[in-house]
From TrEMBL:
<dbReference type="GO" id="GO:0042802">
    <property type="term" value="F:identical protein binding"/>
</dbReference>
<dbReference type="InterPro" id="IPR002464">
    <property type="entry name" value="DNA/RNA_helicase_DEAH_CS"/>
</dbReference>
<dbReference type="GO" id="GO:0016787">
    <property type="term" value="F:hydrolase activity"/>
</dbReference>
<dbReference type="InterPro" id="IPR027417">
    <property type="entry name" value="P-loop_NTPase"/>
</dbReference>
<keyword id="KW-0347">Helicase</keyword>
<dbReference type="GO" id="GO:0032040">
    <property type="term" value="C:small-subunit processome"/>
</dbReference>
<feature type="compositionally biased region" description="Basic and acidic residues">
    <location>
        <begin position="25"/>
        <end position="37"/>
    </location>
</feature>
<dbReference type="InterPro" id="IPR007502">
    <property type="entry name" value="Helicase-assoc_dom"/>
</dbReference>
<dbReference type="Pfam" id="PF21010">
    <property type="entry name" value="HA2_C"/>
</dbReference>
<dbReference type="InterPro" id="IPR011545">
    <property type="entry name" value="DEAD/DEAH_box_helicase_dom"/>
</dbReference>
<comment type="similarity">
    <text>Belongs to the DEAD box helicase family. DEAH subfamily.</text>
</comment>
<protein>
    <recommendedName>
        <fullName>RNA helicase</fullName>
        <ecNumber>3.6.4.13</ecNumber>
    </recommendedName>
</protein>
<dbReference type="InterPro" id="IPR014001">
    <property type="entry name" value="Helicase_ATP-bd"/>
</dbReference>
<keyword id="KW-0547">Nucleotide-binding</keyword>
<keyword id="KW-0378">Hydrolase</keyword>
<dbReference type="InterPro" id="IPR001650">
    <property type="entry name" value="Helicase_C-like"/>
</dbReference>
<dbReference type="Pfam" id="PF00270">
    <property type="entry name" value="DEAD"/>
</dbReference>
């Protein structure tokens, strides 16, 4: 006994001055009352265009958008952005901060500062809910900066949000970014020894934890946008629970504090998880947002989006537009169409400048959305849910919400993942609408019926319940958690999924038969790729084929690198690929990727490169991404030190690599180490039987090995449509399987036909 159960308290801070005013929309002829569930009962709504119909699109898995942690943090050099900030003089910084202070004082959170801060200081954990735009992410950390002894980390699920917030807050604080206020995102660290407040992606904070498990440099961690429930946020929250106990043990005053923050959150759940932590509500938002619904469901979401944009462009004189669409394909289509039609539109309306925003875009391109346009131009940002939280793009007054998002769903029983287009939650819809009211009153056009809105789930399903969790489990092992099944999960991913992950880690050699992390596992946890690929990279170093394998792993990390030819062109393209890739034609897709990548890099003229990509049906943009990812993986391998590799950095010159004949055997053996469970033995009828379960599997028609007879194959992906297909297939020798399989613990391998 001894511990006192604290009372669960809820405190509401309200500032009536900021109550949302009623927006009159009667002149448009529609008037309804908003449902109470979205805490904005004052709004009226109207249909944007009665002739448009909205249809919910389920189970489309063709898109390229993949918002996993890797893409979310898609790293690159952000030097330009950083340099611009550095060039501002001290006196200018001071002046800007004074100007911004006038705005800060009007924010709802600022007005209740003196009531909130003592509450936060009294408790080790606080749950803080405040409307979107009320000043949570920018103000709360600044209030606490002066009070806390050590540093404060504010986590964001997305890289672009962490950078955007650090820029804004350093401006408000009156310093250059990276001084008192900084950020840390993968491969870009804008902090210094006097950084007190750090905006950081949850993935990066977890990485810091792998190195300093007690986060000894911090007095406080603020978990922002907790409602997004990404795997990493969930995992971090679990770790923080343990850390609170450890750091505050035997202390009268807590040495370490946590704030969980969001605009839309199942606050009770978080409060309960943290031993009935108090919940603080800050009421009142900055500006009202009118919401409009469709009368009928839309037939074609792209067409409806374009029509809505043109309608707003013609009807409203000022203010930019932000559209939410599910995936990259849809976004690229809309941006292309808008760019084409913009010059043809009536000259009285502003000129539309369309910009895409999705995770797979290089960061410099993502940052373009913040650029200033010329007078009479109108910014139209077409985005995935990357812009849903935290990012404030100045000038946005209109939001168009398709009501859809893409999610990757992992099925651990089948060992495969699928990309699905699914409806968003009410919480997401609220966040999206909130983007229109950050700087002045705005409008949100929902491309669905109000009755469809009411059917949406309240909150977004935690990512951990639909994802592969090998990486999180490895992180837990790294932090010495023995009982993975009984760990204090915010959301327990389930016995079956956890046991499957432990088995996989054991097979990969990342944990030993006592369940402890091995030396190999320690290295794998540091690499920014899935554990299977991490093990391939580490093995490749031993086999002296690291450069080649880094290239292939980078190719595998880009979605839709190989484009699907139409059925009439398929044979022609396949023949061309077979002719071009002289080794790939016998050894399969991994080797083909390396050959294609080398050809791409050897063509120096960009126009020629583009033409070649078109001819052989590969993505030009995709290969450019491969080059960037390659650099990042290489940097991480170097970071692992001589322990893992002793290759000089200069050895990575492409030309040198290209002149060296490919050591196909060792390249494929490296992959075999990471993907031993994804192997199958050839049968006389050109089908295959998997080594682990003995089920039948066929080579996918998109593979270079389709229709060819091989003794055994290794595949990176398994997809199930009408039957099981292997994708990204390589030919392997039976001896390799016999040689490598017995060395891998826990795998029962039968190589009999
Ligand atoms: N980068 C920026 N540019 C211009 N104004 C900004 C910027 N960031 C914040 N603001 C202003 O500061 C206000 C508070 O922003 P803040 O990000 O702290 O809100 P929040 O409560 O965290 O909202 P959300 O729940 O949407 O994340 C905004 O409403 C906006 O007026
Ligand atoms: Mg915020």
């Amino acid at each position: 006994m001894g511990r006192k159960q604290r009372q669960n308290k809820k405190i509401v801070f309200s500032d009536t001055e900021y109550e949302t005013p009623i927006v009159n929309n009667e002149e448009k002829g529609y008037r309804e009352t908003e449902s109470k569930s979205e805490n904005s009962s004052n709004f009226q709504r109207a249909s944007a265009n009665k002739s448009q119909v909205y249809k919910t699109v389920y189970f489309d898995d063709k898109s390229t958008e993949n918002d996993d942690e890797y893409n979310r943090e898609n790293p690159d050099s952000d030097d330009e952005f950083f340099e611009q900030n550095r060039s501002v003089s001290r006196s200018q910084l001071k002046k800007n901060a004074e100007k911004l202070y006038e705005i800060r004082k009007t924010l709802p959170v600022y007005k209740v500062k003196d009531e909130i801060i003592p509450q936060i200081l009294q408790n080790p954990v606080t749950i803080l809910i405040g409307e979107t735009g009320s000043g949570k992410s920018t103000q709360i950390p600044q209030f606490l900066m002066e009070i806390m002894d050590k540093n404060i980390a504010v986590t964001q699920p997305r890289r672009v949000a962490a950078m955007n917030l650090a820029m804004r807050v350093s401006e408000e604080y009156g310093c250059h970014v990276g001084e008192d206020v900084g950020y840390s995102v993968r491969f870009n660290n804008a902090t210094s020894h006097y950084t007190k407040l750090k905006y950081i992606t949850d993935g990066m904070l977890l990485r810091e934890m792998m190195i300093d498990p007690t986060l000894s440099k911090y007095s406080m961690v603020i978990v922002d946008e907790a409602h997004e429930r990404t795997i990493l946020t969930d995992l971090l929250i679990g770790f923080l629970k343990g850390l609170l106990i450890e750091r505050n043990k035997g202390k009268d005053e807590p040495d370490f504090k946590v704030i969980i923050m969001s605009a839309t959150l199942d606050a009770e759940k978080f409060s309960k998880f943290f031993n009935n932590a108090p919940i603080l509500f800050v009421e009142g938002k900055m500006y009202p947002v009118e919401r409009y619904y469709m009368d009928k469901a839309a037939d074609d979401i792209i067409d409806t989006t374009i029509k809505s944009i043109i309608q707003i462009n013609q009807g409203e004189q000022s203010g930019d537009i932000l559209c939410f669409l599910p995936g990259q394909d849809d976004i690229d289509k809309v941006v292309d169409m808008l760019t084409n039609i913009a010059p043809e539109l009536p000259k009285e309306a502003p000129h539309i400048v369309a910009m895409p925003l999705y995770a797979a875009l290089p960061p410099q391109q993502q940052m373009k959305i913040f650029s200033k346009l010329k007078p009479r131009q109108r910014k139209v940002i077409v985005s995935t849910n990357i812009a849903e939280t935290s990012v404030t793009v100045p000038g946005i007054k209109y939001v168009i919400d398709s009501g859809l998002r893409k999610v990757k769903v992992w099925r651990h029983q089948l060992g495969l993942s699928t990309l699905l287009t699914v409806p968003i939650s009410k919480a997401s819809a609220t966040q999206r609408a909130g983007r229109a009211g950050r700087e002045s009153s705005g409008k949100c056009y929902r491309l669905y019926k109000e009755s469809d809105y009411l059917k949406l789930t309240d909150t977004t399903e935690p990512e951990i319940l639909r994802s592969e969790i090998i990486s999180p489990v490895l992180m837990l092992k790294k932090l010495g958690v023995d009982d993975i099944l009984g760990w204090h999960w915010l959301e327990n991913p389930g016995h079956e999924s956890l046991v499957a992950s432990l088995q996989q880690l054991y097979t990969l050699g990342a944990i030993n038969n006592s369940g402890n992390i091995t030396e190999l596992g320690e290295k794998m946890v540091i690499l920014p790729v899935a554990p299977h690929l991490a093990s391939v990279l580490i093995k490749a170093q031993e086999f002296n084929v690291l450069e080649e394998v880094i290239d292939i792993v980078s190719c595998l990390s880009v979605d839709n690198l190989l484009l699907n030819p139409s059925s009439e062109k398929r044979d022609e393209i396949n023949a061309l690929r077979n002719d071009t890739c002289t080794l790939g034609t016998s050894y399969g897709d991994l080797i083909m990727l390396k050959e294609m990548f080398d050809i791409f890099n050897n063509i120096k003229d960009p126009r020629e490169r583009k033409a070649w990509c078109k001819e052989i049906h590969v993505s030009y943009k995709g290969f450019k991404n491969v080059n960037r990812i390659k650099k990042q993986i290489k940097d991480y391998m170097i970071l692992l030190g001589n322990d893992v590799m002793d290759v000089d950095e200069n050895d990575y010159d492409d030309d040198i690599a290209n002149n060296k004949p490919l050591d196909v055997e060792h390249i494929l053996k490296s992959f075999l180490h990471g993907f031993i469970s994804n192997t199958a033995i050839g049968l006389p009828d050109r089908s295959y039987r998997t080594v682990t379960t003995g089920s039948l599997i066929s080579v996918h028609p998109s593979s270079l090995l389709f229709g060819k007879k091989k003794d055994a194959i290794l595949y990176i992906e398994f997809v199930y449509t009408v039957k099981g297909y292997a994708r990204s297939v390589s030919a392997i020798k039976l001896e390799w399987l016999q040689e490598i399989a017995p060395k891998l613990q826990g795998t029962k391998v039968s190589t009999e036909k």
